[in-house]
Q: What sequence folds into this?
């Protein structure tokens, strides 16, 4: 599908994507594909006010009816999957199959949220007092702020919005300044869903805020936005988390990862190889769940690592929209420079590097394609503690599982982790209280590509937030505990007796 056809299918008019001051470049060749308008500070203020008005209407619509809007949204996404997947690929540089996969995550979370709309369950709790009942209600929160990163330019919005909307909230979305076109396309799709849904969906139920860092800061600082869900680097999350905490808001942080795979002596090396390759070079190493470190047992090291090195030399790198390609470009020159700086440091620390160099420079002078890098860490060298958003895989050898788990955990981040083993005891240790300390701990699958049905997120500098599946919906609601007395007495809790006879 060419760019004109993509824009046509997504109803993106010239006035939607041009005429502004924020230039948008495709990582594929560095060409400018848009020049979008930025929201002024005053415009952001009024969008926040409009989100509050929309919330006050939407919260009164019954939750299963709210689910109907998300059902329609999911169906439109099904129709537009190829066009939106192509635009994702073009705007952020991930390969087309991964662009489609990202839109599929949007569809999946819509399906999940439709069901959730009928399951906003609270508890009934036994009261200690006679003729009393205790109940828990889950109530909508208000406008939900969503800040997303370039690498999952549409799915993260959908994870948050599908749930936030069925929970009775409005949404304000600040996408990455690198990927506003896909956000504008999603806004159009949402508007189409609202139009099909009917009059009981208020205007301004979901809005986008286009801008750079200051736009995000304004959203984060607003006391009118009770929840901020932010995806990005740990440095960004530290600022967002402290700002939101200062105003007693609630934040959901999904930040950096430094994900590792342990390959045990009994591992099925064929699937371990595939899991590592997809996790490490997929999305050109630009997923928060990308595999960044592997710990390979000494018994299988010489079977696995040379095979990985050979594969690294052979992976097809190039235009992400060409279906034979496995690795697309890095997002931009800064990403390339960060990768090179990390490799210089790895070398200084005794790493043995294969790959890492820029490729296809003649064909794409303004596109940053790289050969994915494998860095074998020799002997007892330092663990790698930083997340570099690029395809660099650090390889360590281990002999003792406890030590490997310790080293895997011994980093500031705690998002995703995996072990490949056919030893049931090892698998159970890895997922026990003394195993992985990450939000995601997989057995015989890799670190990336999580399904939407589970709660997604991680510990430590990953921020502690959980989004998408399981009971992540609760973050978009406030819990209300209500005790009801159906007797004619007023017994106090904790058995307290007050003599109020003086007041007779
Ligand atoms: C991200 O990179 O921010 O588990 C999200 C995965 C995807 C989501 C990644 N489902 O790799």
A:
């Amino acid at each position: 599908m060419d760019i004109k056809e993509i824009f046509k299918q997504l109803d993106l008019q010239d006035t939607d994507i041009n005429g502004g001051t924020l230039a948008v470049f495709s990582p594929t060749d560095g060409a400018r594909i848009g020049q979008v308008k930025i929201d002024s500070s005053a415009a952001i203020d009024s969008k926040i006010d409009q989100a509050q008005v929309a919330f006050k209407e939407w919260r009164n619509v019954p939750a299963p009816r709210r689910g109907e809007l998300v059902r329609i949204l999911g169906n439109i996404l099904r129709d537009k999957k190829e066009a939106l997947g192509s635009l994702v690929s073009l705007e952020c540089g991930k390969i087309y199959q991964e662009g489609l996969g990202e839109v599929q995550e949007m569809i999946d979370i819509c399906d999940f949220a439709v069901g959730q709309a009928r399951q906003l369950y609270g508890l009934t709790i036994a009261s200690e007092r006679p003729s009393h009942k205790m109940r828990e209600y889950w109530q909508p929160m208000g406008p939900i702020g969503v800040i997303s990163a370039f690498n999952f330019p549409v799915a993260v919005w959908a994870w948050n919005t599908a749930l936030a909307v069925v929970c009775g909230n409005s949404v304000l979305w600040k996408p990455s300044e690198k990927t506003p076109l896909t956000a504008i396309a999603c806004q159009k799709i949402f508007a189409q869903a609202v139009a099909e849904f009917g009059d009981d969906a208020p205007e301004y139920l979901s809005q986008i805020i286009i801008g750079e860092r200051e736009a995000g800061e304004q959203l984060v600082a607003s006391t009118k936005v009770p929840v901020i869900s932010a995806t990005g680097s740990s440095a960004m999350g530290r600022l967002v988390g402290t700002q939101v905490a200062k105003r007693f808001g609630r934040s959901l942080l999904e930040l950096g990862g430094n994900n590792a795979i342990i390959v045990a002596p009994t591992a099925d090396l064929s699937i371990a190889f595939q899991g590592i390759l997809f996790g490490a070079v997929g999305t050109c190493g630009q997923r928060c769940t990308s595999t960044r470190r592997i710990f390979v047992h000494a018994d299988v090291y010489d079977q696995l690592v040379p095979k990985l090195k050979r594969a690294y030399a052979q992976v097809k790198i190039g235009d992400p929209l060409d279906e034979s390609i496995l690795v697309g470009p890095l997002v931009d020159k800064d990403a390339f420079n960060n990768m090179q700086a990390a490799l210089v440091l790895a070398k200084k620390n005794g790493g043995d590097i294969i790959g890492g160099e820029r490729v296809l420079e003649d064909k794409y002078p303004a596109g940053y394609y790289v050969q994915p890098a494998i860095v074998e860490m020799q002997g007892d060298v330092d663990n790698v503690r930083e997340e570099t958003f690029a395809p660099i895989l650090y390889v360590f050898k281990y002999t003792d599982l406890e030590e490997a788990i310790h080293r895997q955990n011994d980093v500031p981040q705690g998002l995703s982790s995996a072990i490949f083993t056919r030893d049931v005891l090892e698998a159970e240790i890895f997922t026990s209280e003394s195993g992985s300390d990450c939000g995601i701990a997989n057995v015989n699958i890799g670190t990336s590509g999580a399904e939407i049905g589970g709660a997604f997120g991680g510990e430590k500098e990953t921020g502690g937030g959980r989004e998408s599946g399981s009971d992540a919906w609760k973050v978009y609601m406030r819990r209300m505990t209500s005790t009801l007395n159906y007797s004619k007495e007023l017994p106090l809790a904790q058995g307290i007796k007050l003599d109020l006879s003086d007041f007779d």
In short: The pocket of 2-aminohexanedioic acid is lined by residues 105, 151-152, 231, 287-289, 448-450 (CB under 6 Å). Residues 96-116 form the longest helix (21 residues).
